[in-house]
Design brief:
11% strand, 4-stranded mixed sheet, Glutaredoxin, 698 residues, alpha+beta, 5-stranded mixed sheet, 47% helix
Length: 698
Amino acid sequence: MPNRLAQATSPYLLQHADNPVDWWPWGADAFEEARRRDVPMFLSVGYSACHWCHVMAHESFEDDDNAAYMNEHFVSVKVDREERPDVDAVYMEAVQAATGQGGWPMSVFMTPEGEPFYFGTYFPPEARHGMPSFRQVLEGVHGAWTSRRDEVGEVAGKITRDLAGRELSTGDVRAPTEETQALALLQLTRDIDPASSWFKGDTKFPPSMAIEFLLRHHARAGSVAALEMAEGLCGAMARSSLYDQVGGGFHRYVLTPRGGGPLVPHFEKMLYDNALLCRVYAHLWRATGSDFARRVALATADFMVRELRTAEGGFASALDADSEEEVPREARPQKGGGGRREGGTGRHVEGAYYVWTPEQLREALGAEDAELAARCFGVTEEGTFEQGASVLQLPVQEGVFDADRVESVRRRLLAKRAERPAPGRDDKVVAAWNGLAIAALAETGAYFDRPDLVEAAVGAADLLVRLHMDEHAALRRTSKDGRAGANAGVLEDYADVAEGFLALASVTGEGVWLEFAGLLLGHVLTRFADPETGALYDTAADAEQLIRRPQDPTDNATPSGWSAAAGALLGYAAHTGSETHRTAAERALGVVGALGPRVPRFTGWGLAVAEALLDGPREVAVVGPSLDDAAARALHRTALLGTAPGAVVAYGTPDSEEFPLLADRPLVHGEPTAYVCRDFTCDAPTTDPDRLRTALGG
């Protein structure tokens, strides 16, 4: 019989709806039940594409004996970290402080007041490698609760007080300067591994925000070193198995295998990674004209539209790492038996959808092209992954093989791969990540004359306005199947959606997106910002009160809400001339000035926004007799291709009231005209795309 999670909109929670564990969703009812029964709470946090979350669920949460013990002695609460990043952030901070590490699944035992006292991540079904079994942990916590309650209360109270005392103080720190930006660049050069062109460390996540800083710093300061570092990082990522060499798009991270060999991906594909990286490679192409960057940007955009777009027009959160294992043809069951897709074994294996053996290449391509594919993508007879299969990579530089032939091989492998059992998809639409996708698809579509990508961006933006925004422009964080979730938007939702709307306004010339961005940023100013210091919080002042109000200015896999808000506020100020928004952006960037030179890999987006602030940012108005005028469109595209950091572009007719930047901007001699201003000073208007390109560093 399904438990309380059966009514959830989260695919992750729905995956646990048939567990024998009597799960509760996060909410007041669960806490009240724990108080009524006088039992501790077990908080389990994960997400749909998390491999080890599925493993622990299968080993422990589907076990009837474990479930009976949990149901008798605990109130168990299941949380999707992607729906409730605030809950995840608060308790992950406690886990990391207590254990020195964190991750998912996250396992927290806490009092009925939400105060944590025992932590962990994955617990195995039997004790091994120095880890207790999950059952041992349950019994130990129950024993402590019943026989040492005072001790438990002291621990919980101390942890909660320590967390409450961690509120960030920005003091009198100032926005980044030329010096802080240069020091941040120097620190990044020290973090690079010359052998791999990647940042040091065995686990390698895509450093999207740091690369955006490098590209903007090069554009503003002319730093050759910054551009070379960005090119090296982008090349290393797209030639490795982090990148899906057949279908486009990027996996979540890669690991350096013991004993050498190619990097091994963790095969989840997240919307946020692909949105950020699509934009990175498009911006790299804009700076260099690299065909390689162009191909990766477009393939990543096409992957998002092809595999993550939902029926409602938004973008799903992720594809799972696991899929059903494919077995050799001679071992496959006959059609019609068991209701299972032909070729499946019922056993879900990480990466099964993406890896190839030489025999599978020959079956898909024939002997001659299979040999080419094996050489091009590093497929060996011994295998570079598991069970003789290989992860695909580009071990040699492009140009060695015939490009048209390789592209034909990619298409045929993609078609053959589509016959395999596909990874599961988390269909939850997250506002923040869709905002990132809107910005990426709008710009990529504009750069490469792909109106279908711009249309996809508009479709996602329409969904957010229609379904996620209420009559007061307050955001809901998630939706699924056309139904909005119950959870309120957090700072990153407001900031990233505003960023996407601003990009869409610049690309489409439709001022309504600027208007919507302004409404969202109004919430940032009134509900998320400290009026005294300008510091930003991840949750609104009127949001549910947790044991502390989360606040983090550092980037993780996505830009911090703090830095993203600073960027959107600055862009909106450039569009509208609002001193209120610009001042808020400058105050928010103060923390980046303090942290950036020390930890630039974790303040990349803030440093990128600071480059825009130092450059102006520039304000570009393009006017034409109509939006469809060919010369006006050419001038508009030139403006979008300018590399000046954070430049905003308004496009319309001289009499348009949609963009403040278009006011009093007439045509010159009846021809389409561009105006470029910054720091209260304007260049002479121009009708010449080449002069505009020079003015914007294009």
